[in-house]
Amino acid sequence: MSQANTGQTVGFVADWSSDQRVFKDVPWGKAMMWCLLVADTFIFGIFLTAYMAGRSLTTGTWPDPSKIFSLNIGGQELPLILIAIMTFILISSSGTMAMAVRFGYQHDRAKCGMMMLLTAAFGATFVGMQFFEWSHLIFALDIKAWGNPMGAPQFGSFFFMITGFHGTHVSIGVIFLVIIALKAFRGDYDNGAPGFFTSRKGRYESVEVMGLYWHFVDLVWVFIFALFYLW
Amino acid sequence: MAHAEAAAHEGQEHPIGIYLQVWFYLFVLSTFSYLVDFYNIEGVLRWFLILFFMVLKAGLIMAIFMHLWWEAASLIYACLLPLLTVAWLIFLMVSQSDYTFFTRVFMFALGG
Questions:
Q1: Is residue A57 part of a domain?
Q2: Which residues of B touch A158 (CB under 8 A)?
């Protein structure tokens, strides 16, 4: 590959100064997905920064997430256990997604599609658990977006805003995973069948671009898990 | 980088072993960060451990799963450099919220 792929300063400067395409050897779809992800990073970055500011400027006591998200399993109170399981599910889904990309480039359409369906199943499980978590908080613990019995009223608004936006991302990802998996099963990426909206030739690059989105969703959860649930 | 030849095929094709390895590390790191809460580690050590595991996990996902390690430098910098503005925003908000907090404590004590 050209010097663009050496990952060195020389390649970086050459690409940005060449007065041609900046992202040489980077497929169009991938560059656009990265644009979306950088923009999304700003949105989540602003949400989490707002949460940080809201948490440090409130004079009320911040509810202890360790207690709020604990579950009673077999007579034992386990802190954050639901969130931990959700974390492991999302990580597993990232693993299966990476496998799907790998099988895609090997032109193994059945395994590639199966791995994506498995990823979608993990994602749907995650959203289901989030549904359980939300209803538990709203109905059992009386945590609302405008206040809660445990302390600082800001807790609810930040919680529902941040996890809700993330859950929306997971849900959208599940829908697209199923679509891309069906296209893989159908052989669109082996036969180069034109896309419905874009008319571009189908290739397994779409699986990798889908993977970028899905790993990003997992990446955001890493930050939410650390900064909201553990902090 | 050293793996540039690996990317010379079609798209980002890498040995399956490296994905499984990263998968395993992510599990271990998540377990560690959960244990931080489970064992009720408090104070600076807690914050340090949480951020430490968070950065490691984020780095693994971006570098290996999202293939940034093998991408062109122009793409890597285009994705990562803009995020410095978020760091700047965090800095601004820390100082601003501290100011708001002290103003509130002060005014609430005085009764407005």
A1: yes
A2: none
Q: Which residue of A has its CA nearest to B104?
A: A59
**C-alpha count within 13 angstroms, C-beta hemisphere, residue A127:** 18
Number of domain units in chain A: 1
Q: A155, A72 in Cβ contact below 8 A?
A: no
Minimal Cβ distance to A11: which of B58, B73, B108? B73
> B42 and B79: one domain?
no
* Domain total of chain B: 2
Q: What is the pLDDT of residues A59-110, one digit of tens each?
A: 889 999 888 888 888 788 888 899 999 999 999 999 999 999 999 999 999 9
Q: Which residue in A221, A227, A14 sits closest to A122, CA to CA?
A: A221
**CA separation for the pair A212, B106 (Å, rounded):** 48
Instruction: Catalogue the E-assigned strands of A56-205.
Output: 71-73, 76-78
The answer to whether the complex's ipTM is over 0.90 is: no
Closest residue in chain B to residue A43, using alpha carbons only: B86
Counting residues of chain A whose pLDDT is more than 70, the rounded percentage is 96
Residue B7 has pLDDT above 50, yes or no: no
Q: Are residues B84 and B64 in the same domain?
A: no
Closest CA to A207 of A185, A181, A188: A181
- Rounded-to-integer distance, Cα A130 and Cα A26, Å: 36
- Mean pLDDT score, A161-177: 97
Q: Cα separations (Å) of A225 from A183, A184, A211, B6, B57?
A: 33, 33, 21, 34, 11
The range of the structural domain enclosing residue B79 comes to: 73-112
